[in-house]
Amino acid sequence: MKILVGYKRVVDYNVRVQVKPDGTGVSTDGVKLSANPFDDIALEEALRLREKGLATEVVVVGIGPADLTAHLRNGLAMGANRAIHVVVAGEVQPLTVARTFLKLIEKEQPDLVILGKQAIDDDASQTGQMLAALWDRPQATFASKVEIADGKATVTREVDAGLEVIQADLPAVITTDLRLNEPRFIKLPDIMKAKSKPIDTIELASLGVDVHDQLKTTHYAAPAKRSKGVLVKDAAELVATLKQKGLL
Amino acid sequence: MSKILVIAEHLGGKLNPSTARAVSAAAAVKPEIIDILVLADSVEAIATEAAKIDGVSRVLTIARAENAHPLAAVLAPQIAKAAAGYTHVFAPSTTFGKDVAPRVAALLGVAQVSDVMSVDASHTFKRPIYAGNAIITVEADAAHAVVATIRTASWSAAASGTQSAPIEALSLDVALPTHTRFVELKQGKSDRPDLQSASKVVSGGRGVGSKENFEIIYKFADKIGAAVGASRAAVDAGYVPNELQVGQTGKIIAPELYMAIGISGAIQHLTGIKDAGTIVAINKDAEAPIFEVADIGLVGDLFKLIPELEQAIG
Fold it and tell me: Using CB atoms within 10 A of its CB, is residue B241 exposed (0-12), middle (13-18) or buried (19+)?
């Protein structure tokens, strides 16, 4: 079984992103970039399936500029067998990402595609679902448990009502939620080993994907700030304040 | 003029309040019509409820045995077909809407606008990115249908009960896949108010310390008639089930009163509560970031303060 894993690079989750004063974007100069946390979880799950003998090959896929190579090396150091780097200068929107993955799927013929449930930069939460639609295959989003047997995936999903279990025939798309696993740390010897692992480089333009973006971001604004409130001295004062506001 | 199709969310034969919130967002587009689409195995009760929502022109129903459970792969082809002639398809940005809407968008070959907070014009919307650290204005291509999910915390539910829109059954010729099957839903049984629509929410965090200690949060919530929520740390630690998680990757809520107890206030949590009316923080660490956004703060030990609060409430 071959597994494709989406591996996006995003502004690190600890960075408090600032909007540029002129509203043209957010300041990303010099900020720390890391793997999208959900994608680390996706890669970890794929590696565990390989370690259980259920998968033979794990391929990480990144879409982005030339300097994305270093990021993909991290995925290889974590344990992926090889990487595919789809090179494109600017940002790509989820529909374009899904169309790009579909092209890679046609070539790679994976049995499973594991993606993060959302990227923590655009917070769109779309790519996995769109890919499953275009591929005409099952989707199991927001996964917190994955079991693979007899050509089927039994996936526990974190939904608003609780935990939903669904069964999907492979090939399928799974998107990861936070509690699926805890990704391993990269060890120094693995970084050395990763240097000799292959990264295929493909220009997005060469894939024949419709890259026409349908959404235009015209303005960035800082969120409305909540003003700092008051401290009360004890429980009695808190209850009195809430009663006064009609909240208790 | 815009014609909007709103996808109804429901469970156990009951309409989810998120649907009426999506209708509010649809009304903000000032459309010619707002139709609600109900997909279920048994549609009558849900459709009757949906028909009462103000501003709804028609309720369209697709009753099929395959629609007994909300499987995106099964629902999306039906929604995509029903969407013909509409300028917009809206779904609530709940796990239901997040699962199915992008699948519909891809079938229609259109981009999706996720988590719509406000409507500037028929094709111009505001939505949060970076866990709410930036709000962007997005323009969708008017040549295509707009598929959008609605950030329910940004919209109050459209009023209900003064009207009864016509209900029409759709019969669409759509072949449905069998590659995805529902197995079960493990649902925490609770008599407490629903976290996503409750007017009061009491949340506990890592500071609560254990699953056993969380009883103090449940008890206090019951005392004031509140729903119970939790931070990611409390869910990860196994104190409470996942459906109680509030924040960027959990539920985004807007109660009138939100009480954060033993929650430090990571940005990912704060993004889930910033539309709350009044935020109360109780934490023993006076430097905790939660106090930066709290309207009312109380520094101290929650295990001492909660019994005192209960006593003061009487």
Answer: middle
- Domains: count for chain B: 2
Q: Is B226 touching A (CB cutoff 8 A)?
A: no
Q: What angle do CA A135, A141, A143 make, to 5 degrees?
A: 130
Q: Are residues B151 and B235 in the same domain?
A: no
Residue B135 and residue B66 share a domain: yes
Q: What is the tens place of the pLDDT at every residue in B255-280? A: 999 999 999 999 999 999 999 999 99
Q: Contact, A178 vs A41, CB < 8 A?
A: yes
Its ipTM equals 0.96
For A124, the domain range is: 2-244
| B positions 168-207 inside 8 Å of A (CB) | 177, 179-188, 196, 200
Containing domain of residue B221, as a range?
200-313
Contacts of residue A17, Cβ cutoff 8 Å, sequence gap at least 6: A11, A26, A27, A28, A31, B130, B133, B134
Is A150 part of the contact surface with chain B (CB cutoff 8 Å)?
no
**What residues of B are in contact with residue A18 (Cβ under 8 Å)?**
133
- What is the pTM for the complete model shown? 0.96
Per the structure, how many domains does chain A have? 1
CB atoms within 10 A of CB B28: 16
Q: Does residue B159 lie within any of the structural domains?
A: yes
Angle at CA of residue B69, ends B33 and B244, nearest 5°:
90
| B88 DSSP β-pair partners | B4, B146
d(CA A25, CA B75) in angstroms, rounded, equals 36
* A81-103 residues labelled b (16+ CB within 10 A) or e (exposed): bebbbbbbeeebbbbbbbbbbbb
**pLDDT tens-digit map of B172-188:** 999 999 999 999 999 88
